[in-house]
Amino acid sequence: MGRGSRQRFDVLVIGGGPAGVTAAARAAECDVRVAIVDDNLSLGGQIWRRATDGSMPDSVRWTERLRAAKVTELCGLRVFHQPQVGILLAEGVDDIHELRYDKLIMATGARERFLPFPGWTLPNVMGAGGLQAMVKSGLPVHGKRVVVAGTGPLLLAVAAYLREHGAELLRICDQASRSSLARFGVALLRQPGKMVQGLRLKKALAGVPFATNSWPVAAQGEQVLESVTISREGTSETIACDYLACGFHLVPATELPSLLGCEIENGYVRVDDFQRTTLPEVFCAGEPTGIGGIELALVEGQIAGLAAGGRADEARSLFGERKKRRAFAQALDRAFQLRTELQRLASPETIVCRCEDVPYSRLSQCSSWRAAKLQTRCGMGPCQGRVCGPATQFLFNWNPDSVRPPIFPVRLESFAVTAGVSEPVYQEVTGGHG
Amino acid sequence: MSDATYDIAIVGAGIVGAACADEFARRGLRVVVVDRDTVGSGATAAGMGHIVVMDDSEAQFALTRYSQHLWQELRRELPDDVEYDQCGTIWVASDEEEMTEVRRKHDHYRERGVATQALDAATLRNFEPNLRPGMAGGLLVPEDGVLYPPCAARFLLERAQQHGVQVRLGCSVAHLGQGRIALNGGPEIRAEFIVNAAGTGSPGLTSGLEIKKRKGHLVITDRYPGFLRHQLVELGYLKSAHSVSSDSVAFNVQPRRTGQVLIGSSRQYGAEHKGVDHAMLVWMLRRAQEYMPGLRAMSTVRSWTGFRAATPDKLPLIGPWSADKSLFLATGHEGLGITTSLGTARILVDQVTGAKPEIPIEPYLPSRVSREHAHV
Amino acid sequence: MSNLLTVTVNGVAVEVASQATVAVAVVLAGQACRTSVSGQPRGPVCGMGICFECRVIIDGKPHCRSCQILCEPGMEVRTDG
Predict the structure, then answer these.
(1) Looking at the 3D structure of chain A, how many domains does it have?
(2) Which residues of C touch A124 (CB under 8 A)?
(3) What is the domain range of residue A187?
(4) What are the residue ranges of helices labelled H in A5-71?
(5) Domain of A288: which CATH number?
(6) Angle between helices A194-204 and A153-164 (to 10 degrees)
(7) B279 touches chain C (CB under 8 A)
(8) Taking 60 as the threshold, does the pLDDT of residue B317 lie above it?
């Protein structure tokens, strides 16, 4: 098999963010063998990335519990294929791991939604979470002029973070309306702890111009971003800046659940009260079941971990809290609906599929995601539709089709691993082939 | 007389249906094309898009050679996104036994006017440095090429549309026959003649067709320009394609114009499921790695499967179906649909219009099958 | 106080904090990570390994997602532009 390992666990958790860490800790506390897998170099996922500065006490607490419960941590591994039910293949830098499980908990999180507009492909135009991740990974932003745009609660959190790290925040623009955000603010107040968070953010961002009903219409620059034009209630303004942190809320990462054959409903993984998917022994917790933020992920992860670990009653005791947190998820959804003006930002030449450089004009002639894929290669590049999929879904109302292995690009030799296959087993995939 | 709306109704907007539509249109007939999905969404989307001369039989050779000429004539008109590339095929010989086959093939092609060049080990290494050392040699067929099938099918269909051909996509056929096509949830289509070009879907529309699904796997890499210059096929490919019953893999890689490497090939009978069969995939990829060790570390972006429409004698069905005077077939092309699409269209349209075909058509007539049945 | 280390980006030495990713080094060097298929300069977008815009060549190996790879002293990073 080459360099790597073959390991078996009672419960295998995929994804090291809040949902995954709590699930793994809780499952391991049920006295079963648990492993947690993440493709980043350490646990934390996105929101808990490198959370060593005390700003995320939940992260510290749960990671300590995970370690005390002797969960096996498998970081730097990317799960890409299920060759057989009960076995996942994960690739490392130069090795490959065959991971067998009795029960699987998928906590694969979410990613930002990116929408195309002229100039969005210029270097230094990044996601909001994207720029934050870069800063957490060592990018200095001291003295850099930043515009934060798009939509979603992430914008404010990112803006505050960047400001704390010395960035000059020129503007925060959310495409949501003032009334949507006001209603969201009210919903926030109903959530324990959120009011404090909200006030903290307000203080951190004092003096930074914040605009609702506002979105980027174009980014300018020769080789790199130099300025961005923001529209606001009919007028537009061009602002010189070094970074544009722009993301339009979050979409769930459902590639692994789809590959396995879990039922996906309206883009989210369908789960029962115990976070169990439509596949026996397979659970899902956190953003893939519905974008709901960190507190919901924490409780869903715990329910999944306890259920997988065989402690249904303890899991049940958390249903009340989950219900409360789900209300927040619904408020999130309502507040940050995308307005239709955003569908018209792209000009005919604007690239929509970044991997294959397919412009809007070519895609607008296609009748479906599948036709676009076949005719233009949109979605067939390395990102396999992770960026252009949500964008085209919003722009053209297309539905993406089936997921194929590998769900991340891997070395050919990793794909060609025998993985203890005794007889071929198929995963049910919907949609056409090709 | 006929009150048909159309002269011809074609079921299937894959490469074969599109080529037929284009050919009918050029001869001035009123045509409609129906497909349950989008253009080229079946085997046309899944396959390797090669244009190769194959000599598994004289009949196969005749049709592939004829078609290849037609592609060469057409190439100047093909738009950029069809990515036509006359990169040539090299049949790779891994040992002396296979070199004997190389020499036989070389002579065989020479006699029939196909340009070929026998390559010794050193020359082969020069042409394709990423093949593992120790290959015995190969046979270069410089007139072979590759293209990107979904765009080729679209091009042909669009050209047909410019001549007035109607295209109805997203329309599935409930049943057809006697000059009528009943659509699911749609109006009936009437035509003087119907062409069943539905690939693996054709037996579902015309009972008695002996066409089986032959599953294949493919994998594509990220961009590695210059890694591969020609389409490479192992000589064992013919054995794999020839076999009527067993599962097999054969080394077959193709350079795409994007610089991606397309890796095949596998064949399975009786595998109805669209999912990737890991055991077959491993088998196929290991074979590819054996021939080109450099593939090991390359980033693979996607895998998929497709179903070839396979007939018992490995030749397509092109011609009238005796049980229905209005029905013609253009299906059963197995792994040669892209190559033979243009030739198929010509000889099919010749038969419908009563023109003289440019190659003998007997080997492809559907009646050859019926005749065999009569004997049983 | 974090340690610093040096990598080269297109032959030019770049000093980064230890635990910085290769993507950070490329951005600090003022370079685009890659050139798109139609010739546009591209840099990191998602910061989490899903957009593939941060792909660079590290020590001769192409298609490395630099936002998920830590810098190591002496690493040779090349962008294809």
Answers:
(1) 3
(2) 27, 43
(3) 114-248
(4) 18-28, 57-68
(5) 3.50.50.60
(6) 50
(7) no
(8) yes
Q: What is the pLDDT of residues A140-177, one digit of tens each?
A: 999 999 999 999 999 999 999 999 999 999 999 999 99
Query: Domain boundary residue among A283, A318, A333?
Result: A333
Does some domain include residue A429?
A: no
Q: Looking at chain A, which residue has its C-alpha nearest residue B282?
A: A416
Domain boundary among A333, A363, A383: A333
Min distance B278 CA to chain A CA atoms (Å): 5
User: Average pLDDT of B192-202?
Assistant: 97
What does DSSP say about strands B327-331 and C4-9: parallel, antiparallel, or unpaired? unpaired
Show the tokens assigned to A183: 């209603």
Cβ within 8 Å of C, B 218-257: 222-224
Q: Angle, nearest 10°, between helix axes B337-353 and B149-162? A: 30
Query: Which is the CATH superfamily of the domain at C4-17+26-78?
Result: Beta-grasp domain (3.10.20.30)
Are A157 and A151 spatial neighbours (Cβ–Cβ below 8 Å)? no
Distance (Å, whole) CA B211 – CA A411? 36
Other Cβ atoms closer than 10 A to B320? 18
H helix or E strand, kind and range, residue A248: strand A243-248
Name the minimum distance, in Å, from the CA of A381 to any CA of chain C: 9
Residue B191 has pLDDT above 80, yes or no: yes
pLDDT score recorded for residue A423: 37
pLDDT tens by residue, A208-265: 999 999 999 999 999 999 999 999 988 999 999 999 999 999 999 999 999 999 999 9
Q: Where are the domains of chain C?
A: 4-17+26-78
Closest CA to A246 of A387, A143, A357, A350: A387
The reported pLDDT for the residue numbered A57 is: 87
Are A106 and A179 members of one domain? no
Q: Which residue has the tokens 């394609």?
A: B241
Q: What is the mean pLDDT of residues B92-96?
A: 94
The tens digit of pLDDT for each residue in C37-80 reads 999 999 999 999 999 999 999 999 999 999 999 999 999 999 97
**In this complex, do C63 and B297 lie within 8 Å of one another by their Cβ atoms?**
no
- Tell whether A73 and A9 lie within a shared domain: yes
Question: Do the domain assignments include residue A142?
Answer: yes
The string of pLDDT tens digits covering residues B70-79 is 999 999 999 9
Task: Output the DSSP codes for A98-159.
Answer: EEEEEEEEE---EEE-----TTTTSTTEE-HHHHHHHHHTT---TT-EEEEEEESHHHHHHH
| All partners of chain C with 3 or more CB pairs under 8 angstroms | A, B
Cβ contacts below 8 Å, chain A against chain B, sum to 117
In the block, which residue shows the tokens 């080269």?
C8
Question: What is the distance in angstroms between the Cα of C75 and the nearest Cα belonging to chain A?
Answer: 15
Which pTM does this prediction carry? Answer: 0.93
Cβ within 8 Å, pair A415-B39: no
Q: What is the pLDDT of residue B21?
A: 98
Does the pLDDT of residue A430 top 90, yes or no? Answer: no
Q: Are residues A143 and A224 in the same domain?
A: yes
CA-based nearest residue to A402, from A389, A391, A411: A389
- What are the pLDDT digits (tens) for A267-318? 999 999 999 999 999 999 999 999 999 999 999 999 999 999 999 999 999 9
Side-chain half-sphere exposure of B113, counting CA atoms within 13 A: 5
- Reported ipTM exceeds the 0.95 cut: yes
Q: Residue B205's closest CA among B181, B187, B189?
A: B181
Residue A190 lies in a domain: yes
A10 inside domain = yes
Residue A341 CA, chain-centre distance (Å), reads 24
Residues 6+ away with beta carbon under 8 Å from A203: none
Whether residue A292 sits in one domain with residue A373: no
* Two tokens, residue B154: 């679209």
Cβ(A295)–Cβ(A193) under 8 Å? yes
